[in-house]
């Protein structure tokens, strides 16, 4: 049976993918302006097992002090970060039971972080920036992966 956590995560990315589709020119991943879907744009990228992935659409939310950032690379690939208290400069440890988490999804397979760090390096009234790295295991528990050189810089909304 599929865990409710993965169903919610999959639905979140599906909604993000649908709302990021429009007939205008694709968002420039190197810009730092709001896009027409109400989400944020900026920069979000990582290397997963040595391959570079850059998000074309980013949504960042301050949800009662919990940092939530989702980056859509394409229809089947996405990056998700969350950290309680993550709207302050600092380092947030990803571990079992910790308030920080990360997931990389590629070709429909979710890789949940088992250890790592989300480091917030700058926060202003409308933007947040930082780095991240993590070790993963896929949902079946039979494949691991490594996310390195992760970076993000984007505008965010408060909910």
Question: What descriptive keywords fit this protein?
Answer:
159 residues, mainly beta, eleven-stranded mixed sheet, disordered N terminus
Distance between the termini: 32 Å
User: What's the number of extended β-strand segments?
Assistant: 11
- Overall pLDDT, averaged? 79
Structural class: mainly beta
Biggest sheet layout: 11 strands, mixed
Flag low-confidence runs. Answer: 1-39
Which percent bin holds the helix content?
A: 10-25%
Number of helical segments with 4 or more residues: 1
Categorize the overall geometry. Answer: globular
Structural domain count: 1
Write down the secondary-structure element order: HEEEEEEEEEEE
Proportion in β-strands: over 45%
Computed Rg: 14 Å
What does this structure look like?
Strands 1, 2, 3, 4, 5, 6, 7, 8, 9, 10 and 11 form an 11-stranded mixed sheet that branches. This protein is mainly beta and 159 residues long. It contains 1 helix and 11 strands, in the order αβββββββββββ. It has one domain (4-158). Mean pLDDT is 79; it is low at 1-39. A hairpin with a 3-residue loop joins β8 and β9. It has one helix at 4-19; strands spanning 42-48, 51-54, 57-63, 66-74, 77-84, 90-94, 100-106, 109-123, 127-138, 144-155, 157-158.
